[in-house]
């Protein structure tokens, strides 16, 4: 069962990145202020909270300390997700009661691995680690950064992907059918501060397709829109067995 995760972040682009990173792994609720977050926490059950430090109405460190002083939220996993990467800020975050501290820009796959690893440890009686997810024909290990492809023989074969190809395919598998503009892929995997040409995305997609074999055709280029991972539903036609014509036996006429 998917768990509820609360993201407290006022930047819409970061909300989109987190939503893309976590995909269908959790139920994600986004709010933009501490006041909204406080109301959400008291109205619904959340398994984890991602918290920015600089928010419109309050400081994330102070909010975290306040929650830790309340018995109801003393054990709530809290991850800071912030652009403050100084050592002093990290120390302040952990001193305020945070369980983890992730700096921006962040790797979407790493964030997903951290979140799911924490939720997996917190859950009781779970037989299957949530650090691994499966989609038809694929098994993705978010911690080991490995993807296995189901073969016709029924065995799973490891795909020798580069780190960036792993992140691309993981993103597509978790968001099948969604169209990702090239510009969004550039921002997700290279960031806004690094200049790379749009052809860079095409080059990596081409390499990924080759490594996926016949399944590579599922990564489709949508004219003037971007890329989408869409597998055509294979409809198996059943042909009715032909009846063998048997000669009719006529009963002899009674004399």
UniProtKB/TrEMBL annotation:
UniProt domain Response regulatory: residue ranges: 4-119
Residues recorded with modification 4-aspartylphosphate: 52
Chain intervals for the UniProt region annotation (Disordered): 229-255
Lineage top rank: taxon: Bacteria
Gene3D superfamilies for this protein: 3.40.50.2300, Winged helix-like DNA-binding domain superfamily/Winged helix DNA-binding domain
Record keywords, A-Z: DNA-binding, Phosphoprotein, Transcription, Transcription regulation
GO terms of molecular function: phosphorelay response regulator activity; transcription cis-regulatory region binding
InterPro entries: CheY-like_superfamily, OmpR/PhoB-type_DNA-bd, Sig_transdc_resp-reg_C-effctor, Sig_transdc_resp-reg_receiver, WalR-like, WH-like_DNA-bd_sf
DNA bind region: 130-231
Start-end of Low complexity biased regions: 229-239
Biological process annotations from GO: regulation of DNA-templated transcription
Residue intervals of the OmpR/PhoB-type domain: 130-231
UniProt GO cellular component terms: cytosol; protein-DNA complex
UniProt cross-references to Pfam families, sorted A to Z: Response_reg (PF00072), Trans_reg_C (PF00486)
Name of this protein: DNA-binding response regulator
Species of the source: Bdellovibrio bacteriovorus
